[in-house]
């Protein structure tokens, strides 16, 4: 059983909702991420989503794009991201870490490190053929969300991850069809991430009633936990989403709050904000 599944089962037994903050690796300072991850856990995070900086993100709004650009300019790539996870694991062996990003850095990593994985849909002998899968598992990664790997191209990649005890997490959207939900349900593990808005991260006003109406439809197909993200900016919206979702994902607002802070204040500012979200979720009944 993966750390993600163990975490969600524990939360379910406690009748609590998962809080999943997203931060971009290497932002706002190249050396801040392991301490920031630890601080978020202390403030109530149940899972950490760690963004892998990429030059051409398709799902990220201006805030996360800017964070990624700054991290890339500081020399943060997938190799450095895995090193950050390893450092975090020196102090925390229980909190799941999910890498969120795009196909290009993963496939380039495999090219550079000698164990080419090919395209996600290509036949593959075993997990050892992917340097990324091997090294992510060794670093302590628990799940991977690749925005531009659709389920019909991911069977081998999912198998490689599962062989190393990692989950492949997929996105669903307001436009997802029943067929797409069924495709995702066949491959996804850990949890599914429902994108609550038709747009990029941090955009638009969140319609919590639309989210509440969509989740029962998703659960007709998806039997693992469902997290909701995009557009959650404060305790009020987090609580409203938490009434129907199994997890609340929040990212752009955290990056906005820490982006201009001195190094010494970054972790404290992020923790103070996340505590307010944790309190709101814990105030839900059942």
UniProtKB/TrEMBL annotation:
Pathway participation: Amino-acid biosynthesis; L-tryptophan biosynthesis; L-tryptophan from chorismate: step 5/5
CDD domains linked to this entry: Tryptophan_synthase_alpha
Coiled coil region boundaries: none
Active site: 49, 60
GO molecular function annotations of the record: tryptophan synthase activity
Record key words, sorted: Amino-acid biosynthesis, Aromatic amino acid biosynthesis, Lyase, Tryptophan biosynthesis
InterPro entries per UniProt: Aldolase_TIM, RibuloseP-bd_barrel, Trp_synthase_suA
UniProt catalytic activity: (1S,2R)-1-C-(indol-3-yl)glycerol 3-phosphate + L-serine = D-glyceraldehyde 3-phosphate + L-tryptophan + H2O
One GO cellular component term: cytosol
Function recorded in the entry: The alpha subunit is responsible for the aldol cleavage of indoleglycerol phosphate to indole and glyceraldehyde 3-phosphate.
Similarity field: Belongs to the TrpA family.
Quaternary data: Tetramer of two alpha and two beta chains.
Name used for this protein in its record: Tryptophan synthase alpha chain
Species of the source: Hylemonella gracilis
């Amino acid at each position: 059983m993966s750390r993600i599944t163990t975490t969600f089962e524990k939360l379910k037994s406690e009748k609590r909702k998962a809080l999943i903050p997203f931060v971009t690796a290497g932002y706002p300072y190249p050396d801040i991420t392991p301490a920031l991850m630890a601080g978020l856990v202390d403030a109530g995070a149940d899972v950490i989503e760690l963004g892998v900086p990429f030059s051409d993100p398709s799902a990220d709004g201006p805030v996360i794009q800017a964070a990624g650009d700054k991290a890339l300019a500081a020399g943060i790539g997938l190799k450095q991201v895995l090193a950050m996870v390893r450092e975090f694991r020196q102090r925390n062996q229980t909190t799941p870490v999910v890498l969120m990003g795009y196909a290009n850095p993963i496939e380039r990593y495999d090219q550079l490190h000698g164990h080419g994985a090919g395209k996600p849909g290509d036949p593959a002998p075993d997990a050892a053929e992917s340097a990324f899968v091997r090294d992510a598992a060794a670093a302590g990664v628990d799940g991977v969300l690749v925005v531009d790997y659709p389920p019909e191209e991911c069977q081998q990649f999912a198998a490689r991850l599962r062989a190393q005890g990692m989950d492949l997490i997929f996105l669903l959207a307001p436009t997802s069809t029943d067929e797409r939900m069924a495709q995702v349900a066949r491959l996804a593990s850990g949890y599914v991430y429902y994108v609550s808005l038709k747009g990029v991260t941090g955009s638009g006003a969140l319609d919590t009633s639309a989210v509440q109406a969509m989740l029962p439809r998703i659960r007709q197909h998806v039997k693992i936990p469902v997290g909701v993200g995009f557009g959650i900016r404060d305790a009020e919206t987090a609580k409203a989403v938490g009434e129907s979702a199994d997890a609340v994902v929040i990212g752009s607002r955290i990056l906005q709050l820490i982006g201009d802070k001195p190094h010494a204040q970054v972790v404290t500012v992020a923790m103070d904000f996340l505590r307010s979200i944790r309190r709101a979720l814990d105030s839900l009944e059942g």
